[in-house]
Amino acid sequence: MEDFMNAFFPTNTDHQLNLPFYLTSSGIFFTETEMDRPHGYTSPQWIQTISGSGQLYINDEVYDIFPNTGLFIPAHLPHHYMKTGEDWITHWVSFDGYAVADLLQAFGLTDFAYISLNNPQQTQHLLEQIYRLSNNEYHQHYFKISTLLYDTIYEIHRLHTTKKSADIHGSQMFLTLLAYIENHYMDDFSLNDLASIIQRSPQYVCRLFQAELSMRPFEYVRNYRLSKSKSLLLSSPDLSIQDVALRVGIKSPSYYSALFKKEEKITPREFIQLHQRGV
Question: Global pTM?
Fold first, then answer.
């Protein structure tokens, strides 16, 4: 059985359960042995290996676990793990809260992630802070722990995004495409045009934008054009809606007006009136 001397499982009050992020468990320098969870764990987990080795069975795959690797395991995802060396030592945390599901969705952390950590100190330090605060008068520190949990989730997101970018070797290509859109948003171009700029397939461009921004390429182009049109509406309020649409690369003024209303909940002219300074 595991040694729970370096683990903390809080009993949260109703007030703490109403926080956007609250702790459900924490451990540092924890000696792992074997754990079988056919129905998963009740909260999302981050498990970071400090030393030793283990094996994880999840999603019909087997993963070898080594030092400086991190595992993000969503809630209720069945998994089984065990040590494979003399000692498998981990830091870990699990969390919940009313904002957790939406934040994980926004950060693209809805599936299991295995992450090699080039610089493990940041997450390791956060996990140690959480454990030491929680193990020392938890009910006085739960607000601080809530902010540290957000920092931890953000750091996992940053590591995961870096990993995805590295996996597809696309970060520089992505910046090239953003620069092209910034300089040519007023022009008419297609997905094939974007693909030809970086000499990749249209499917690759779609994967690139999905990995970096969790959106389709022309979702980003549309949002960028709308943003530019808002600046133009305010700097040149006498322009016709047709001229504004054309100057940001949208040929149809009726489509532009409908899109603007859908995204902003007001018309372009109402947007001008809302932001006009009084005389």
Answer: 0.62
